Amino acid sequence: MRPSIKNISFSFAAIFILFSSPLLSFEGKVYSVKGKTVEVVGNRVTQLKPGQKFGVYSGLTKTGEIQIQQTTHTQAKARIISGSAGKGAVVKVVEVSKKAEAGGMNLVRGGTFKMGDTFGDGGKSEKPVHRVTVSDFYLGKRELTRGEFRTFVSETGYKTTAEKKSDVNTWQSCMGMKQMDSHPVICVSWYDAIEYCNWRSKKEGLTAVYGINGENVNANWQADGYRLPTEAEWEYAARSGGKKEKYSGTSDEGSLGEYAWYNANSNDGTHPVGEKKANALGLYDMSGNVVEWVWDWYGEKYYKKIKKANPIDPVGPNSGLLRVFRGASWGSAPRGARSSYRFGFSPDIRISDVGFLLSRSGSLAERWNEYQGYTN
């Protein structure tokens, strides 16, 4: 159970202030945190809704920084430029970032793990097992839904790959599959997923990750916007933080049905996202419902090439013909539901069991989540 605010140490004391203005600038605001006056100097502005609350968290005595959090959307990091903690201080905003958890995402703490076929029953492309390190990142708790994709199309008039190719099977009507808006979106290509990520980033005032020129796509890994997870991030998260976990949430095939919709229980179709048990990181449907696009180009022998490198935040081969998909779908057998299972599809393919998850890069300014969640 979280401690009450009165029990939080002085360096993390918090107050909550209510603003009625729809436009908040951190610049020039003066905050009093347990008697310490802090003025924010900077020029970063963010859109807020009228009447929303935000809190100020003070770390002056330990780090020389404060964190400013608008509880549902935005947080900022500020550094002292004059004065002192005891006499009041003037600080400058040095970073403002959107708060990912509010958008249905979980923070995944990075680490080093053994990636690949750790149980010895996988295919050639899953071998050899190799050490990989991933940094902190955010991952959607659930697969992107049909309803969320509908909003994107409605607001932008976007034409999907299927529509551009005059395919009768589109995200709205895919191979006779009966779906509601709570089901994962399907019949979307890798390119459709990339376009959605950029739209969502711009809509929320974030920097778009992808530069798109036709079918040529480049990634800016320093951007704070939405993106597809890398293959390494996906496997690390599916295995509850890199554990030796055969399926996402369990290693017992007998309990796979508690965590996943697959060929033994799906009734040959998708289901609303998040109905089964989550894994230890609070992530749903990573071993079933729909397969998920990730960023990387597919290379069958890629693991052999990077085995000795012990890579940090790998992003896959530089080029290829196929993009990796991960996870399992409503039609997968248990073998295909294993967390190490990997394969590739042409990035323009659209079928009834492939969707996607959203990801975002983690930020050092967001590593104080133990104090997130207090309200007045």
Q: Care to describe what's here?
A:
The chain is α+β, with helices and mostly antiparallel strands and 376 residues long. The protein folds into 2 domains: 5-98, no CATH class; 103-361, Alpha-Beta Complex (paralog of FGE (formylglycine-generating enzyme)), CATH 3.90.1580.10. 13% of the residues lie in helices and 27% in strands. It contains 7 helices and 20 strands. The protein has a 7-stranded mixed beta sheet. A 4-stranded mixed beta sheet has the order 18-17-16-19, with helices on one face. It has a 3-stranded antiparallel beta sheet with strand order 10-13-20, with no helix packed on it. The longest helix has 14 residues, at 190-203. It is globular, with a radius of gyration of 22 Å. Mean pLDDT is 79; it is low at 1-27, 32-37, 41-65, 69-75, 94-98 and 364-376.
